[in-house]
Amino acid sequence: MRVALIKQILDVFGPWSGVKWKDTSPTKLFEVWPNKAVYWELTCMLRADWYIVPQALGGDYTRVAVEMFPGRAEAIRKYTKNVTPVEEIPFEQYDLVISFDAILGAPDDNVPLFAYFAQEHWDRLYTQSLRRPAAGYDLFLAHMMDSNSTVSSLPQSISFPYLHDADLVRSTFPGQRQEAVWVEWRTLMTLGMKDSSEPWSEVGEAAVARLKDILDLPICYRSKLHEQSYGFADPPKWGDAAAYLHALAGCRYFVSVGGRIGAGQGLAEAAAAGCICIGQEDRAYHRLICHRSCLCGDMAEMPARLEVVRRSSDLQGEILTQQDENLARHFRSGPLALLAKAIELKRGS
């Protein structure tokens, strides 16, 4: 399957340079990839080429992530390399094209399958796309898992998570496990009674100290990345996503409860890295990945559930086995089969 991934220049996610898969590698990608590692596993699993195109469309995500901050758009343009006009992308060379937001005016007689993610589930684009994909697209990939589970016709929306591959992550980041717990920053912000969209502050540090006393475990977390929204920095923190995954792989446990966690991307990354994951039962990815003993109804349940897991090496082994099986089924083989089916339908039409 030949795959192209396409984003606009004022998109903080993904690499900040267009790059062909033949010219890069899983580790080399991080040289041009600041901020979150979301889409890194997808890129490697699909051996995809990345294209960055000039800004043509705005929207809720672009406004909140970039436009409302003076100077941020100029900084992104300064550091982003290898921008390609849309008309110069050789679409005919690909079986699948995935864009981030509905930024392409795909022609009706296009050769590849055209699909797109909405970068944020709170963007109006996401809600609109659940009803019907944007004009010219075959698939809307609903990362919140709140759409159809099968591909029956085109165009349509389907439940489609961010892809994850345990073998890829663990071979790239072979961590030395420590008896420590990585706590997602949204959990800490919830403990500190701060909104997860607010910058990190001394409130977050106080929450770390409080949680350390409760759990009686070393607490690992990130703070610097969240001093500005979307982890923006000038200059960009190249390689920071790799440093995060390396540190994550060194923790035995991962906790993500409370707060506005979205679908649960952070927990899926932790499961791929081999952490025992304690999650929340109302989050889509958490339900798909976590062992039943690790799902909390609310934050208050978390310390007791973690303590039960810590006491039993047999339970830990059972949890890790089930997490790996769930990850392979729901975040690798299942979604890839959906794409293959959609490509087959497109060619047949």
Structural overview:
- The protein has 349 residues and is an alpha/beta fold.
- It folds into two domains: 3-163 and 331-348, no CATH class; 166-328, Glycogen Phosphorylase B (Rossmann fold, 3-Layer(aba) Sandwich), CATH 3.40.50.2000.
- Helix content is 37%, strand content 14%.
- It has helices at residues 40-46, 60-67, 72-79, 124-131, 166-172, 185-191, 202-215, 240-248, 265-273, 284-289, 302-311, 313-348, and strands at 3-8, 49-53, 96-100, 113-117, 139-142, 156-159, 178-183, 219-220, 251-255, 276-280, 295-296.
- Strands 2-1-3-4-5-6 form a six-stranded parallel sheet. A five-stranded parallel sheet has the order 8-7-9-10-11.
- Helix 10 (284-289) links the parallel strand 10 and strand 11 (295-296).
- Helix 6 (185-191) crosses helix 7.
- The model has no long low-confidence stretch (mean pLDDT 92).
